[in-house]
Write a structure and sequence with these properties.
This is ABC transporter domain-containing protein. InterPro entries: AAA+_ATPase (IPR003593), ABC_transporter-like_ATP-bd (IPR003439), ABC_transporter-like_CS (IPR017871), P-loop_NTPase (IPR027417). It is built from 15 helices and 13 strands. It is α/β, with parallel strands linked by helices and 348 residues long. The chain folds into two domains: 259 residues, P-loop containing nucleotide triphosphate hydrolases (Rossmann fold); 67 residues, CBS-domain, CATH 3.10.580.10. A hairpin with a 5-residue loop joins β9 and β10.
Length: 348
């Protein structure tokens, strides 16, 4: 097998040889019980995650969501049940080899303070026996991918980076061996709101390019809505209260517990998921109005309507505002789109 990221992962997960994205994950009746504890930390948990899917685990502290995620790479060993990645039971694999082929990002980032950023990213490729040339190329590639200039950041130490820059370096390290699976444990939780929003946007951009299979733990439902393909709302002992798309959960919470996570403003949250292009637009006319791209969300459109005081916006084909006007949208069209259509996720 050639000395490549894909070749390394394919030794463990064969499907990684034919795709640059992720592989499927199946958890089948997984339980975790600790000695001396009368109640299981995780009880009879079953779920299938599709290749390339980003699944959010959301729930209160202590519900078992992080424990469930950590059993996937065997940082915590399950008491019973099976966990399969690309059809292989992880309990039959070497724990060290398994972890080297699963990216792992935590809230505390976990960069080695005595190593440069380049050396931090190179840790797993070196453990896998990559050549110096291939490792150096991969480090430079990943720094550019997470928008850290290699000429500026490669030789710096973690203490010389801001919190947001350290998080990006942590994501780069998790991606170093091009793992088909990534586990992310509240990776943006320790950052300020502005930095967190920027990191979320960068992460969505990155996932659109790499298409990994990702389990992402968060206690922030708004973050789950913004990032996830599907959301698992977890109760005590990781009991799945609802597992569905963000739009489906916002439109029809399964019970009061799920509704409590959504909180107020469910309709506004759904607006952020629906692109303007999904609305039934009014015909274009000769009147000059503020413009909005068809790829922006209905929430963006409503915000612009309120800010400008206009009765409608001209909708422009494409992602910018210089394209051809394809129709008009006002508050009535926004409301109708929300009531009558299922949402498509908008990627910023």
């Amino acid at each position: 097998m050639p000395d490549t990221a894909q070749g390394s992962a394919a030794r463990l997960f064969p499907s990684a040889a034919t795709t640059s994205g992720g592989v499927g994950i199946e958890l089948d009746h997984v339980t975790k019980t600790y000695p001396g504890q009368p109640v299981s930390a995780v009880e009879d948990f079953s779920m299938r995650i599709e290749p390339g899917e980003l699944v959010m685990f959301v729930g209160p502290s202590g519900c078992g969501k992080t424990t469930t995620m950590k059993m996937v790479n065997r940082i915590i060993e399950p008491t019973s049940g099976s966990i399969r990645i690309d059809g292989q039971d992880v309990l039959h694999l070497s724990p060290d080899q398994l972890r080297r082929h699963i990216g792992y990002v935590i809230q505390q980032i976990g960069l080695f303070p005595h190593m440069t950023i380049a050396d931090n990213i190179a840790v797993v490729p070196r453990l896998l026996g990559w050549s110096k040339k291939r490792t150096a190329e991969r480090v430079e590639e990943l720094l550019r991918t997470v928008q850290l200039d290699p000429g500026v950041f490669a030789k710096r130490y973690p203490r010389q980076l801001s919190g947001g820059q350290q998080q990006r370096a942590g994501v780069a390290r998790a991606l170093a061996a091009d793992p088909p699976v990534m586990l992310m444990d509240e990776p943006f939780g320790a950052t300020d709101p502005i930095t967190r929003e920027r990191l979320q946007a960068e992460f969505l951009r990155l996932q659109a390019e790499i298409g990994k299979t990702i389990i992402f733990v968060t206690h922030d439902f708004d973050e789950a809505v913004r990032l996830g393909d599907r959301i698992a709302v977890l109760g005590e002992r990781s009991r799945i209260e609802q597992f569905d798309t963000p739009d489906a959960i916002l439109a029809a919470p399964a019970n009061d517990y799920v509704a409590s996570f959504i909180g107020s403003g469910a309709a506004l949250k759904r607006l952020a998921l629906v692109p303007v292009s999904r609305a039934a637009l009014l015909p274009a006319d000769a009147v000059a109005r503020p413009r909005i791209a068809a790829t922006r969300s209905l929430r963006d459109a409503l915000d612009q309507l309120i800010a400008t005081g206009s009765d409608a916006l001209d909708v422009v084909d494409g992602a910018g505002t210089d394209g051809a006007v394809i129709g008009r949208i006002g508050q009535a069209e926004i409301s109708a789109a929300l009531r009558g259509r299922r949402a498509e996720t908008v990627t910023p």
